Amino acid sequence: SDGSIRLHQMTSEYPLMQWNDSTNGQPIIALQWALTRPAVFFVLDASSNIYIWDLLENDLLPVAKQTIPSENVVTMALLGEPEKPNGLLGIVLAKESGQIDIQYVKEKWALP
Q1: Which end of the chain has a smaller Cβ tally under 10 Å, C or N?
Q2: What CA–CA distance (Å, rounded) separates 112 from 110?
Q3: Which regions of the chain are under pLDDT 50?
Q4: Please, which residues have CB within 8 angstroms of residue 92's CB and are 6 or more apart in sequence?
Q5: How far apart are the first and last CA of the chain?
Q6: Where does the signal peptide begin and end (predicted)?
Q7: Is 80 helix (H, G, I), strand (E, B) or coil?
């Protein structure tokens, strides 16, 4: 609820990494790992901002932030085929009105 993210290992109750206030205090609505690139994850906050984290590029801050204008995004899901090295990775955004948007991610965050 405060925008903090914690990365845990299954064998420990203590986080390996913790990022406080990663969304400027906005609650996190959804967080998902990329299906095609293990070091990348996506975060959706309550202000309809999507943050892209690539832990191989920067483990302190997100590498990109995209604001979705016009309408509140209520959830997100990722599309991709991990068994295919084609680098296609999409984000499905569900908006408050019921509209669904699909956006494709740049190859640099999608390629294995």
Answers
A1: N
A2: 6
A3: none
A4: 76, 77, 78, 79, 100, 101, 102
A5: 31
A6: none
A7: strand
Q: What is the pLDDT of residue 10?
A: 92
User: Token pair for residue 69?
Assistant: 């204008």
The contacts found for 104-112 with CB under 8 angstroms, 24 or more apart, are: 105/34, 105/52, 109/34, 109/37, 109/40, 109/52, 109/54, 109/63, 109/64, 110/34, 110/36, 110/37, 110/40, 110/80, 111/36, 111/37, 111/85, 111/87, 112/36, 112/37, 112/82, 112/85, 112/87
Side chain identity, residue 109: W
* Secondary structure of residue 108 in the 3-state scheme: helix
- Provide the residue type at 25 as one letter: G
Where are the domains positioned within the chain? 5-109
Phi, psi of 13 (to 5 degrees): -80, -10
Per-residue buried b or exposed e for 36-59, using 16+ beta carbons within 10 Å of the residue's own CB: bbeebbbbbbbebbbbbbbeeeee
Q: What is the pTM of this model?
A: 0.89
Closest CA to 51 of 60, 38, 42: 42
